Amino acid sequence: MNRDVSTRKRISTRTLLLWGLAVTLVLAGVVSFYASGHPDGLEFVAEKLGFDSTAAGHAGGDSPVADYGVRGVENSRLSGGLAGLIGVLLVGIVMTGLVALLRRRTPAKRD
Amino acid sequence: MPDGFLDATTSLATAATAVAGVGLSLRGARRELSDFAAPLAGLVAVFVFAAQMLNFPVGAGTSGHLLGGTLAAVLVGPATATLCLTVVLLIQALAFADGGLSALGTNVTLMALVGVWAGYAVFLLARRVLPRRVASVPVAAAVGAFVSVPAAALTFTGLYAVGGAAPIDLSSLATAMLGWHSLIGLGEAAITFLAVGAITATRPDLVHGARALAGVQDLEIREGVRA
User: Fold this and answer.
1) Which fold has domain B8-226?
2) Mutant choice from B202, B207, B211, B220 vs A, greatest count of A C-beta within 10 A
3) What is the residue-wise DSSP string for B49-87?
4) Digit-coded pLDDT (tens) for A87-103
5) Contact check, Cβ <8 Å, B53/A28
6) What's the pTM value of the predicted model, to 2 decimals?
7) ipTM here
8) Spatial contact of B186 and B65, defined as CB atoms under 8 Å apart
9) Chain B residues touching residue A46 (CB < 8 angstroms)
10) Where are the domains of chain B?
């Protein structure tokens, strides 16, 4: 184990971001297929205590990627993987845009 | 959380809380988004989105997934983390029909506000107790992450007590929510430890929660040399 990080050669920000993005794409596009299909903590508790029945259907249920599947794609592995990648793209665009907007309105200052 | 769990009044109140919290975070994030921290914010948001898809089994027929609030707060700062989580929840609700639209304010309040700020507060406390080393940062982040999940679950229980749609026994709700979400918190802690550990090991100067310990001066010199 390397304990002293300061003496090690640091990777560039670009390399770090590309690695992070690669891991993220694999998680969303491939690993997501193997996610547990069991209800999550809240859904489970709601079922057990019997208040899940008040849950309403989703108003956005007819979205082309509703419930993490691309409508029209039969293969569930492909459908779910594509939906994951589309989600990463959407989140990435919105967050990057927001950050750019926030930074443009801020005078450049270094601290 | 889907629509229909909480009544309209409570949903309106959490929506107002969410708007106020996100508004304050928009101001706070400007201070956090320094030149070298900005690119990480986009990565953190997409990573949290991807990780939230990955339900891990927690035991008898239930599962959990990362909330990611503490992970994001330690990496990019709590205000920016609130924005990251809000964007993730927004896309989940609007595009993927995951999380109700009238429940969006509640989901933002629980995960983007409570999950982020409770986790970050515990992280700061843990970091103060641990040795002043960069290696302490992932450990403190894991402690914050662990606490953040039951904190969000307990907040949900409180909201349900005020405006729950079904008459259920609140103490059994609190017990069940806390019990399961403490287990899920262990998963949250493990993933947060690994993710924060990976980045602090390579570029501690990029990590918001490690910058105070990481000797940022190194980076200033390095940038100067390159230019």
Assistant:
1) Arp2/3 complex 21 kDa subunit ARPC3 (1.10.1760)
2) B202
3) HHHHT--EEEETTEEE----HHHHHHHH-HHHHHHHHHH
4) 999 999 999 999 999 98
5) yes
6) 0.90
7) 0.89
8) no
9) 5
10) 8-226
pLDDT digits (tens, 9 = 90+) for A32-72: 999 998 989 999 999 889 888 888 888 777 888 888 889 88
Contacts of B61 (CB under 8 A, 6+ apart): A38, A39, A44
The domain spans of chain A are: 9-35+74-111
Any CB–CB contact under 8 A between A18 and chain B?
Answer: no
Are the Cβ atoms of A44 and B62 closer than 8 angstroms? yes
What confidence tens digit (pLDDT) does each residue in B169-184 have?
899 999 999 999 999 9
DSSP symbol at B110: I
Asked if A31's CB is within 8 angstroms of B41's CB, the reply is no
pLDDT < 50: residue spans in chain B: 216-227
